Amino acid sequence: MKIGILHFKPGPTIRSRKLPSDVKMIRNAIKELGHIPKIIPEDKCQLFYTRHHAKVLYAGKAFPKVDIIIPRVSLLNNVGLNASILGQFELQGIPVLQSYKSVLRAKNKLRTLQFLSKNSIPVPVTIVVKRFEFLDVAIRKVGGFPIIIKTPFGSLGKGVAIVESRRAMHSAFDLLLTSPDFSSLLIQEYVEEAAGKDLRVFVIGGKVVASMQRNAQGDEFRSNIALGGIGNIAKLTKEEEEISLAAAKALKLDFAGVDLLRSNRGPVVMEVNCNPGLEGITEVTGINIAKKLVEYAISLVEKGEK
Predict the structure, then answer these.
(1) Residue 146, preceding bond cis, omega within 30 degrees?
(2) Class of domain 193-303
(3) Using the 8-state DSSP alphabet, how is residue 105 labeled?
(4) 2-105 has which fold?
(5) Structural domain boundaries in the chain
């Protein structure tokens, strides 16, 4: 079986041949399972349209034949536009693990909250603000300082900050208003009892395959491994497992990294990642997550479900 790994570059095109570690892990897992990997840099693809045809080209030529594509969508900006190639693959009948619509739901934090709330999945109290005059009301609604502020798009802890006073919040909002990319700000309650810890739950095909607790270090409140957080194996409660599965299902993700906080009122979903890192959770748990991801992709093709 030929399995494509479509990888996106998060910023402006960088002429580098160095592959991200997650892409290497998936490539190695494909080989280990006796199949053929095909690395597909997204920026080498072109969308080609005529009156009667629409297709994806690769380096100006016919797109290579693959049985399924595993995308690594490390995008932060203009996701709807830049990830549209996933939608084109779907229109052409090329199986993709992770649909275009599911990626859009997970990459936009506001859209994620809409789907989680609609499906009665617990989330931190959050208010979306666009105008300065509504800041104070929003802060009261989420329980007062300290508060968490988030931009609608971001990953690896980027676009997230803690604000501990009204003066700092007003200054931050003033600064954001000057940015041409500013559209709205998510103001969220600070779950103090979580004490700088969260749970990363890895879901593949409607099953929890691994979980870890991430612990923020020093003065850093964000627990992301990429920001120096330290992970250890976590044992989930039945409720935590059920909520993680429900979150991935609500966004219709084939695989997801669901981030939970343990609050006084029970677990709440902080974020759902459609491009969860593989390296940290593999090292912490000893579970070959990339292999499990590839095995799931293969099973879908064999069953004709993709």
Answers:
(1) yes
(2) alpha beta
(3) H
(4) Rossmann fold (3.40.50)
(5) 2-105, 126-190, 193-303
Reading the chain (306 residues) residue by residue, the pLDDT tens digits are 999 999 997 655 445 568 999 999 999 999 999 999 999 999 999 999 999 889 999 999 999 999 999 999 988 778 888 899 999 999 999 999 999 999 999 999 999 999 999 999 999 999 999 888 898 999 999 999 999 998 887 655 567 888 989 888 888 887 776 666 677 889 999 998 888 899 999 999 999 999 999 987 766 566 565 556 678 999 999 999 999 999 999 999 999 999 999 999 999 999 999 999 999 999 999 999 999 999 999 999 999 987
The residue whose two tokens read 């029970």 is 266
Distance CA 58, CA 56 (A): 7
Which of these, 164, 151, 148, lies nearest to 198 by C-alpha position?
Answer: 148
Q: Residue 52: beta bridge partners?
A: none
